[in-house]
């Protein structure tokens, strides 16, 4: 690790309480879709309501949890440093984590952040050459419900 990188966060197993995968029901949720007419408009409104509740939950989490604020700030600093110094974000994962990682990679690419997805098995068989000394790796796993950002 280069001394110019921000200091990595200490390993803390249970510092952040586990959150439910789905956001809590919003106060102004749409009627139960099983009982209501399943029109495209009602379905779209239900999706928007669910997303709104999820974003509100995330906003509250980052407003109220100091550890989460520090972790987010450090992740942003590491990503900015990597991008400014010609590195790239290397995302890896297997199964559902891998599919989510591929979507994250596409999102970062659309934002102009140099990124790539690396299958862990391909990494073991010679594709580690795609990682430069200034790269930032995102290692995801649903086994422990966490994502780690690790400067190379």
Task: Tell me what you see in this structure.
There is one protein chain. With 152 residues, the protein is of the alpha/beta class. The chain has a domain at 86-151. It has helices at residues 40-64, 66-84, 96-110, 120-124, and strands at residues 89-92, 115-117, 136-141, 146-151. Strands 2-1-3-4 form a four-stranded mixed β-sheet, covered by helices on one side. A hairpin with a 4-residue loop joins strand 3 (136-141) and strand 4 (146-151). Helix 1 (40-64) crosses helix 2 (66-84). The longest helix has 25 residues, at 40-64.
Q: What is the element layout, followed by pairings?
A:
Blueprint: H1 40-64, H2 66-84, E1 89-92, H3 96-110, E2 115-117, H4 120-124, E3 136-141, E4 146-151
Concise summary:
The chain is of the alpha/beta class. Helix content is 42%, strand content 12%. The longest helix has 25 residues, at 40-64.
> What percentage of the residues does DSSP assign to strands (E)?
5-15%
Put simply, the count of helices is: 4
Class by alpha and beta content = alpha/beta
Major β-sheet, in short? Answer: 4 strands, mixed
- Described by the principal axes of the CA atoms, the overall outline is globular
| Helix-strand string | HHEHEHEE
> Order of strands across the biggest sheet?
2-1-3-4
Poorly predicted regions are none
Helix content: 40-55%
* First and last CA, distance: 6 Å
Q: Any idea what the radius of gyration is?
A: 19 Å
Q: What number is the mean pLDDT?
A: 76
């Amino acid at each position: 690790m280069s001394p110019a990188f921000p200091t990595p966060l200490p390993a803390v197993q249970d510092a952040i309480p586990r959150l439910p995968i789905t956001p809590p029901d919003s106060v102004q949720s749409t009627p139960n879709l099983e009982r209501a007419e399943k029109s495209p408009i009602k379905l779209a409104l239900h999706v928007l309501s669910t997303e709104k509740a999820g974003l509100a939950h995330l906003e509250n989490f980052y407003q109220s949890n100091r550890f989460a604020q520090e972790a987010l700030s450090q992740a942003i600093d590491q990503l900015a440093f990597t991008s400014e110094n010609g590195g790239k974000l290397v995302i890896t994962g297997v199964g559902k984590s891998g599919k989510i990682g591929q979507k994250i990679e596409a999102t970062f690419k659309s934002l102009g952040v140099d990124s790539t997805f690396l299958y862990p098995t391909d990494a073991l068989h010679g594709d580690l050459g795609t990682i430069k000394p200034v790269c930032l790796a995102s290692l995801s796993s649903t086994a422990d419900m966490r994502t780690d950002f690790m400067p190379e």
